[in-house]
């Protein structure tokens, strides 16, 4: 899952401090995006609990047949369009997750819930390593002011973000002139992601609750 879906799953746990828990559930993805590491031991307790929930959520989500099948099909579609194997697999995995975020943003209350969590985000810049609090604060501020994450509804925006995210990964990167190819494959895959989105999220929430993993 990507950070919007992680926040939605975490908010389903409810209870006091739910915004800090949900922010912690998004933190690993946000830190990776910013090229930063997090010293978990220095985080507030609710945020630290959210980071732990992030990893439990991913373990559950990555085992779902809807996800594994969707990733495989998207990767195959990309290869059929001429994208190399490495980038096809990377885009298949990350692209399915970003499309899921975009689909969830069209569900009632999810955009508002995510905006609330980001708007109430505690200042945890001191926990990032290497020490670069300004970079972390700029990322959080841009999510509050620019709301660029709303662009995940659009397949071309997702393709461009993936191209930037993967450009430093020699085996996984793809060229800027391949963005239209990737965007077309993502647009073709999006209806299937949208169809599976509710079932996937509800299954993850139910499994985490049944296993007592929200605590």
Structure description:
This protein is mainly α and 215 residues long. It has one domain. It is built from nine helices and two strands, in the order ααβααααβααα. It has helices at residues 3-11, 18-34, 45-61, 65-80, 85-104, 110-119, 133-145, 155-166, 179-210, and strands spanning 37-38, 128-129. Helix 5 (85-104) packs across helix 8. The model has no long low-confidence stretch (mean pLDDT 94).
Helix-strand layout with pairing:
Layout: H1 3-11, H2 18-34, E1 37-38, H3 45-61, H4 65-80, H5 85-104, H6 110-119, E2 128-129, H7 133-145, H8 155-166, H9 179-210
Antiparallel strand pairs: 1-2
Helix pairs in contact: 1-2, 1-6, 2-3, 3-9, 4-5, 4-9, 5-8, 5-9, 8-9
Q: What tags apply to this protein structure?
A:
single chain; 215 residues; mainly alpha; two-stranded antiparallel ribbon; 9 helices; 2% strand; globular
Mean pLDDT across all amino acids: 94
The total beta strand count reads 2
Assembly state here?
single chain
- Low-pLDDT stretches are none
**Over all CA atoms, what is the radius of gyration?**
17 Å
Distance between the termini: 19 Å
**Strands side by side in the biggest sheet:** 1-2
The helix/strand series, from N terminus to C terminus, equals HHEHHHHEHHH
What about the largest sheet? 2 strands, antiparallel
Give the overall shape, derived from the CA principal axes.
globular
Q: In DSSP terms, counting alpha (H) and pi (I) runs of 4 or more, how many helices?
A: 9
Q: Which percent range describes the beta-strand content?
A: under 5%
Structural domains: how many: 1
- Estimate percent helicity: 55-70%
Structural class: mainly alpha
């Amino acid at each position: 899952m990507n950070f919007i879906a992680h926040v939605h799953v975490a908010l389903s746990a409810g209870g006091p401090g739910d915004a800090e828990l949900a922010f912690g559930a998004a933190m690993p993805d946000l830190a990776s995006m910013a090229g930063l590491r997090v010293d978990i031991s220095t985080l507030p307790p609710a945020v630290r609990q959210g980071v732990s929930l992030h990893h439990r959520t991913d373990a559950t989500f990555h085992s779902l047949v809807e996800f594994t099948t969707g990733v495989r099909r998207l990767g195959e579609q990309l290869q059929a369009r001429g994208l190399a194997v490495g980038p096809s697999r990377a885009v298949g995995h990350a692209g399915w997750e970003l499309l899921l975020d975009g689909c969830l943003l069209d569900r009632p209350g999810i955009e508002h819930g995510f905006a609330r969590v980001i708007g109430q985000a505690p200042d945890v810049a001191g926990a990032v390593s290497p020490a670069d609090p300004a970079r972390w604060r700029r990322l959080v501020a841009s999510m509050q002011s620019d709301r660029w994450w709303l662009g995940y509804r659009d397949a071309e925006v997702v393709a461009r973000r993936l191209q930037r995210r993967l450009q430093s990964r020699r085996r996984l990167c793809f060229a800027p002139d391949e963005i239209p190819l990737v965007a077309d494959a993502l647009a073709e895959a999006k209806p299937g992601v949208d169809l599976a989105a509710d079932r996937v999220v509800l299954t993850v929430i139910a499994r985490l609750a049944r296993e007592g993993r929200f605590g």
